[in-house]
Structures are given as structure tokens and as C-alpha cells.
Amino acid sequence: MTKYGLKRACIAIAVLFAVNIAVISLAQNADAASYKRGSTGSVVSEIQQKLKDWGYYSADVDGIYGSRTEAAVLLFQQKNGLAADGKAGVETLAALGISSAGLIEQNTSGDVALLARLISAEARGESYEGQVAVGAVVMNRIAHPSFPNTLSGVIYQRGAFSCLDDGQFDEPVAQSAYAAARDAMNGYDPTGGAIYYFNPATATSQWIWSRPLIVQIGKHRFCA
After folding, report:
1. Would the N or C end of the chain have less CB density within 10 A of its end CB?
2. Taking the CA of residue 120 as centre, how many other CA atoms within 13 Å lie in the half-sphere pointing to its CB?
3. Helix (H, G, I), strand (E, B) or coil at 221
């Protein structure tokens, strides 16, 4: 290859690389500019209420964008000629009559509600300490490099919590779970730093038994 040809090839590669980066960036920005599964807060409550008023949503208006909210948004999009992805972006919000200003909000009370829902689903039959312990595992995962670094990221990580697959996550939240969530978020950790837990009476994974035991609280073994 001539010096001129090599130069042209390098330029072409650089252009292609820049285009790929731009496409990825646009995709990430588009995804960020939407309320989606894992989002929380007052705007999510407004989305749920609108969908409920119009017959698309029948669950609680709790400010948590879970599987039922996602399904309701998807149905609304399909019925109204919108891009059907289950995410409430600018166009979907406009169709709902909701301002898209401030996408996306971070709402601490929404995070408490989200963690409380998980705690209730995973440990509603446990003692208060056992409920806080489940919340502490979530908080420990956020701080651990092997897991997502956000509350919603940890909770909605595929395969992380069985309650998201068996319907327990959508059940009414026990009142004690809200206080347990706040305590866990404020640093109370009765597990001593656990990042895993399981019920030995129902566990089917052989791998989970290999995790070093830190403490047992109620029916759950909490492990490193």
C-alpha cells in the first residue's frame, strides 16, 4: 500500500470509529431521556395515575416503575401509534399530557419505596432485623465493584432476586419494610457486610452454598 493509500485508510478507520461512538452516545442519551423500569419518583406516580384514569393500569400508584407500569405504558403506546418500547420518553409523556422537563429526576423517597418493596417481597415473614438485613445486602452490592452502582440497577439486575420473577415484587408492601429500608440506607447492617443471602430450605443453586457464611438471621443465611 502506498503512503497516500495508508493515509486514506487511517482516515476512513478514524471516521468509522467516530461514527460508532456517536451512535452509541445517541442511543445512551435517548435511553437516559426516559422513565423506565427502575425509575422512581413523583413523575412516575403521575404516569401511573394518568394510565389508571384511562384504564391502562390497575395496580397501586406508588411511584415505582415496575413490570406492571412498563406493561401499561407499552399498551398505551401500541394503542396510540407511538414507538412501543415500554419506556416513557418525551413523545409518550407528551401523549400523556405530562411535561418532560427535568428528565430524569432522582427522588430519595422513591428509592426508599423501591427498596421497601424488595424487602417486603423477599423478607415479609422475617423479623425486623431480618428485613433490614435484606436491605443491607442491596446497599452492600451498590458499594461493591461486582454489582451495579445504583439502587435500581442492583434490584433489577437480571436473576438477582427471585421475587421479580415469581410475582412477589408486585404484592402490597408491608409497613415495616419502609422503616427497614430507611435503616439500611442509613447504614444499619446486621449482616456484617454480606452481598448474598439465601434460604437453605428453598435454595436450588449449589453455587450459593459455596459462599462463606457471615451470619444467619431468621431463615436467611447471609454470605460474603
Report:
1. N
2. 19
3. strand
